[in-house]
Amino acid sequence: MSNALCRTDDTVLLIVDVQERLLPAIHDGEAVVDRCLRLATAAGTLGVPVLGTEQYPQGLGPNVPALRALCADTFTKRHFAATAEPGFLDWLPACRSVVLAGCEAHVCVLQTAIGLLEHDIEVKLVADAVGSRDPRNRDLALQRLRDYGADVVGTEMVLFEWLHTSAHPAFRTVSRLIR
C-alpha cells in the first residue's frame, strides 16, 4: 500500500460501471455521477488518462453519456473484477497507480480494486465517487479495501493533490470544479 499523494504522472482514472439502468438504484447516484464527472474533467485537463468499464451493457445499458464522453475508451466486461476479464490488463495503460471510482462499491469496484492491488498497482479509491444500492454495502467495501491496501481518498483530495500547488497553470480551471 502506498499512502503517497495522488500524482498525475503514471496514473490512470478508471470509472467503473456508472451505467444508465443501474444508476437509479444506487444510493445518492446523482452525487456519484457528479463526482465522477468532476474527476474525469480534471483528469482530462491535467493529462491523466480517463477510462471506463461497462458491466454487460446489453442488460445494464451504457455508462451515463456525459461520463462516457469524457472517457478515452470504455472496456466491456462480464466479470465483476475487470482484472479477471481477458484482455483488460493489456488494455489498461502501464501505470503505477489507478484512481478508482464508480459502481457498485461492494461488487465491481471492490473486485477490480483487489485485482489491481494483486497486480501491484496502487489503488486510490475515491470514497465519495463510489456507490452501492445500500450505503451499508458501500461502507463495508470501503473498509475492506482500506484493510486490503487501497488508499481511500475523496474527490477534493485527488484534485488538489493532482494540482500540487496553487501556482499550477490549471489551478483556476480545476478549483472551479469544486465550487
UniProtKB/TrEMBL annotation:
Gene3D superfamilies on file: Isochorismatase-like
Boundaries of every Isochorismatase-like domain copy: 11-156
Domain of life per record: Bacteria
Listed Pfam families: Isochorismatase
PANTHER family: HYDROLASE, ISOCHORISMATASE DOMAIN-CONTAINING PROTEIN 2
Name of the molecule in the record: Isochorismatase family protein
Organism ancestry: Bacteria, Pseudomonadati, Pseudomonadota, Gammaproteobacteria, Lysobacterales
